[in-house]
Amino acid sequence: MPDAPQTDALTEGGDAPGQPIRLLFIEDSENDMLLLLHHFRSAGYAPHFRRVASEAGLLDALADTTWDVILCDHKLPGFSAQGALRLIQERALDLPFIIVSGVIQEDEAIAAMRAGAHDYLSKSKLDRLIPAVERELREVCNRREKRLAEQTLRESEARQRALTDNIPGVVFRMGFTSDGMLGFQYLSEAASMLFGTSADELIGGSAGWMTWLLDDDLPGFIEAADLSAAHLSTLNWEGRIQLSSGEQKWINLRSSPRLSEAGEVVWEGVMWNITHSKRVESDLRESRSQLAALSNHLQRIKEDERERIARDVHDVLGGTLVAMKFEMSLLESKLESHPAQARERARNVGRMVDDAIATVGRVTRELRPGILKDFGLPAAIESQGEDFAQRTGIQVKILCNDHDLAPDYDTALALFRVFQEALTNVSKHARASQVGVRLLQEGDEVLLEISDDGVGIDAADLQKPRSFGLRGIRERMSSLGGRLDVDPVLPHGTRLTLRAPLYDPTATERPPQLRSHAR
Description:
Radius of gyration: 51 Å
Strand order of the largest sheet: 2-1-3-6-7
Largest sheet: 5 strands, parallel
């Protein structure tokens, strides 16, 4: 009989409505099909059905409609239940496949069940037909719900894995081990970046990672974990670990505890590498400490400078004025009786006046270098060098190829003050007999080089916390966008090389220049 669609009139608007069901019959006997339909209608179903009897008909029916149940005869001309079952399985269709046959041997039925058939019935005993179909429909529903739940779980795990793998911190679950320590039960892939060890090597009963905690930090971690376990409160701890490679890191561990099904406390949370922020914090504290020390040092320098100026005014200028007054008294007493002595006294007074004028000029120049503004940086450097040589006896040789060099005033003033500081350091520490100075322009930069033939500076001295002189010079040059280089001079001595832009590179307009006079 050719395969053709067969439609139950009741499903198309008859007078006996019922629960719809889609039945696919693989059957060569129409009477046998009608017998099976009678059982469904008697059970309150309104079947929509189709009968096929060949492989081509089965494929066409599967492509045309979605079916609830397949009822298949064991053997048909040119086709069989095993062949039909194979086609269903190849298409991964989860359909109840029930064999209904007039004649089937027990071993054939068992083989069909092993091959994937859900049940087999005899056409002469159809009292189990409806219960078997309803049972398999429930199983199909259960399997679909299970697959949906498993798919939802897989998608949820995939989302969680994507989140944990892309979080820069290490997502973890942690619990107590048999020895009372804390071991990881789960770690995200970021563990390899933090610990330098794969997550698989750290997961399990081992609590060996706690041996990485520094001895100073381990008691605090154990105390925080015990307190969190006792009150089921958030565990928020930070401390240091030292890896097997010798590298030391700061970590922040934040997690929430809960009781597992076994009644044990487990923590779930995130662990972060905070080494960089801790180093920045430490550097900031150190920088603030150094800044405070530098500020105190600058204040002491200011007081020392005031004391020196006061001493110069009191001891030198004041002494000179007192001596002048004494000489004037002697001069007055000898004007008539001893004219030769009077003339000598007058000459002494003149010399004292010259000394007083020189002292006033030197003190004034150090307080406010007017020569810098009036005659430019080269003239101010030469004048300061001459004053230094006269005061200390240290020879100063100055080479300036360009007396028209005219940086902006802030740059010139900074370089002049650095030059003063450098000469002060030479007089205090270098034990030098000679200082060499070069001032020139290189491209868009002004270069000031100061070298001496003293004892030199050790590299370790440059890193001393209280190396304020050089630190102050370096800070001043940095504020100009310049730099300071400190190098040894062979066979002994030190060279300071200062470079600074001629003009402020951030300024939109060229700043006013110092007046420069060629010599």
